Amino acid sequence: MNRLLYMVTRNIWKVPGAWFKLCHYAKHTDEYPEAEKYAHVRYILKTAVDTGNIDFQVYGKENIPEENGYMMFSNHQGLFDIMAICAACERPWGAVLKKELYKIPFMKQIVDCTKSYPMDRDDLRQSMKVIQAVTKEVKSGRNYLIFPEGTRSKNGNNMLEFHSGSFKSATKAQCTILPVALINTHKVLDEKGNKPVVVQLHFLPQIPYEEYKDLNTVELAQMVHDRIEEVIKNNE
Asked: Which of 68, 131, 211, 214 could form a disulfide with 141 if both were Cys (CB 3.0 to 4.6 A apart)?
């Protein structure tokens, strides 16, 4: 059985109520506190993770900044990545996602509830608007996630290069960066079947603005890439 179908089947009695509430939050997003909307999104995704035949191992939660207004940068292996990070992180955050995901039911509602931003990487003007919007949000104290590879790696735990432009929001907001390393997440939803799988998520030590302020975005992208890659190689 497909693992996503397996997750839904195991929680079928919860699905109607959770879906209705998610849609309600998405349609009336300005009427509810961010923490309340995120808690419901996290409830849905964490429930799926907990019942998906997954040994989900989380490390480094002590590295999550105590103050809001930070950005997470993670490697990207597959469809499970968002679920994993949400299940592991109790603090609300939004994400920058490729525009195609916004057209998918359920993902659209999550984007709306978390004030995430769909980005068209082929449209420079639209991409710049997203960067500016995220910069403003981070400065105001919200947290964001970006996958700087731009697309999921289709080669397991082997990473793609990081796009330096993905780091412009961080440098402009002068915020703390929280690198995130995902290991074996591609095995959850991007491979057939629902056999037991072990997945790791590592929150790496924070990178404060003072540590990277003298780097350009190319140098910063490489530094974050190398730190994540080292953790993956040492733990896969």
From this structure: 68
Distance CA 175, CA 216 (A): 15
Structure tokens given for 11: 């929680």
Q: How far apart are CA 109 and CA 217, in angstroms?
A: 32
Which stretch of DSSP H or E encloses residue 179? strand 176-183
Give me the numbers of helices (H) and strands (E) for the chain, helices first please: 10, 7
d(Cα 182, Cα 138) in Å, to the nearest integer?
23
Whether this prediction's pTM lies above 0.70 is answered by yes
CA distance 70 to 93: 9
Output the CA–CA distances (angstroms, integers) from residue 69 to 3, 8, 173, 203, in the order listed.
34, 34, 9, 16
Domains annotated for the chain, with CATH where assigned, are 3-235 (3.40.1130.10)
Tokens of 134: 């995220």
Report the pLDDT value the prediction gives residue 47, as an integer from 0 to 100. 96
- Give pLDDT tens digits for 18-28: 999 999 999 99
Amino acid letter, 207: I
Distance, in Å, from the CA atom of 5 to the CA atom of 24, rounded to the nearest integer, reads 24
DSSP state of 163: P
Cβ pair 201, 182 in contact under 8 A: yes
Three-class DSSP category at 222: helix
